[in-house]
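Sequence in, structure out.
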Amino acid sequence: MDGITFKIFNSTAQLPLQWDHVAQQNVFLQTPYLSVLERSAPTNMQCFYIGIFENYELIGVALAQYLDLNVLESFGERDKCIKTTLRNFIFKNFASHTLFLGNNMITGQNGYIFSKEIDFECISEILRKSADEIIGYFKQLGIAIHLVSFKDFYENCAVKLRVYDFSNMYEFTTQPNMILYCNENWCTAEDYSASLSKKYRDQFKRARKKFEGIQVKNLSYEEVVAQEEIIYSLYHYVAKNAPFNTFFLAKDHFSTLKGQCGNRFQIFGYFLQEKLIGFHTLLLNEDTLETYFLGYDESLQKEKMLYLNMLYNMSEYGIANGFKRIIFGRTALEIKSSVGAIPVPMSGFIYHTNPWINRFMKIIFKQLEPKVQWQQRHPFK
């Protein structure tokens, strides 16, 4: 840590001028996206921006998010069972004030980035000390942080972080990140479908047949604003019926994101007889295509195979535009694997600020994370 310091900002207006240069390889750490979080973050979220300096030169940036789960309308309403009730009780009473080092809204290693090589001993110390400083900030406000989580590290990073300041934390793995690696020989949707085995090529054809009559349109900022209420209601239905949630987006999140990020944020509307029945969103992140939030009309979902067709459309966009990989994120693992995404394990580290409760973190965490049984599909020849 010789010569390495950090400073925590609570407004993007305060960020150093070099911030985007340091974050140039990750759209989720650049000021256009961070300003969206600042202007239209979930109502129970507050963001902090961490600048890391070497002899006063900015060499790294990181993101932290505080979540107040007391104000959340629902943790997810799909699963109604005793274990879900227990999980909700634990969150409300022992984990309602949670601090994430990283981005809780997306899947992937998007919590920090450096413009030069930094050893993992230094990274783990910076992240841990940043968490301690934010905990102290909330303590002055009379708020006790319960849980602290350092989220989403690929295995090559996790194995190094666990040696240093993270060694006494509980390391957890949740649902994997589903990633489609685009074959360099794919140039069109036809190339992709030709690479599928007969079973999954038939699935592709069947989905496309069901999709007839639906128009897909890349929406402009003005169109997003005009459709904002419907877009949010479609998103909210899907989010509310997910197995688990720690936040809900602000109603103007998509229009704010489109206004701030322009063409780096794509939102596609699905219209049936000129009525918006669904949408999906994408963020263009260097050579990686990041899938973001989506929504659909549940009454048409099965009939039109909307979700599966959205996955195919995202894949086709990535292939046509030369992306090397498409990040599909967590949830719906089996159907994502049916279009070619493979599971990539990710780790996180977590601790409770109450030392007595922290001793039982392994037991507690198993009650917090919904267990998912699924079968990986292998759609390619």
